[in-house]
């Protein structure tokens, strides 16, 4: 079974269940690139990825590289009851980042102290709506890399 | 903040009735068109096309099981008990039932229900998606079927064992009907986490506070304290309890979350003509709507231009367009409350206040009995039972029958809403 088909990491964190439309995002992430699906005809970016442009109905798309900078749009601190691997780190943060160069494209992620740090590695008091962040990447399992976020001014 | 003026309770007159013409006028636009090439339309078809749902059907029976954290009976048995009770309430034998409507995440399908309760030949059945967003749509679908002659006696129901059964987010292999690959790996696992994101943003944009969310939780709990059937009947809530309770997903605490309930409810719908012969006071379906907004993303609605205007806004536009009255004429509302922030969002969406004013609306006891808009008078999902919002429909019926345990005097109009934050639905009921 390839890692991408596994449901969780060895310690129980959920891996993305990738669909056909989303696959390029994860392939670029594995190369350390944050890319956004963009209509090849009208240049309108869209997220989550989907087969057809909702603005011009074109089926042609390109994956445009983002600078990886953005701002926290919102965040939560989940507490148990949670799946065991998440409960162990609770309370941790989950954040939504609005990309600086793609306004309205917002990605869910985690704010971490370093790329491979735990989901609770940043002091909750540091989280603010509007805080500038930059993307980092961590390999959750062999062949599965996810974007994470660090404060621009740690 | 600007508020629609509201008729003082003591001056309320019964809503004007427009049920005079149950046979709807045939559109005459084609009548002079005898030379047209196209075939003449069958007049009966034209009647159906011109039909409106407005007051054409009525809820004439409601039924429910007890609500508890754990009930011994199966979900199917509970469903049958609620349906049989609702038919008995209406005085209609099960053999006359020819339509069923339910929503997804319901374990008991119409085949099981129909054969167990002894339904007759069924000619209409429908299942609405998106969990709690489908509650009011079950009634809307039955109303459409009955108004257009596809069936005559409809049953909608909801049975759940969420209290003692599995939860969709406790299993790593079960994917909620959300784009899970973009959220779940980051530990955004439960509906409370997903709505918590919108709640935090709402608080940030509009200065809403936890006290506003407490106002919602308290109003529901106070009504539950009047309702012996409610799970929280004998359990009052204080501000101190709320503010010191454990977090579920900060900014949402325990009391911002609905209950985990085993239980079932059902209602029976017939045409307005037939309703007059039933043993209960008819509660008319005045207007009904579903809402799936453009570029909506389900519970994780983070990816459109304005995530804080959800499906309620879409459903509301259609609901009011088809109605003879507006938000200022609603005497009591049953607003879907899986989480407290859904109330301010829905108050805005359904037009009780302006954008960003939903939190402020809850101040000064506005949601309590005698307030500007009493809500969730049975206790709602937060304090009566969480059965995907079906208890909000039956409580709306009780209000318009005058039999609620927290009766709003002379209530003649009621808004009932389904889950906000997912593709939703809503009903305007009138007596």
From TrEMBL, chain A:
Pfam families: OB_ChsH2_C, zf-ChsH2. Residues 26-59 form the ChsH2 rubredoxin-like zinc ribbon domain. Residues 63-137 form the ChsH2 C-terminal OB-fold domain. This is OB-fold domain-containing protein.
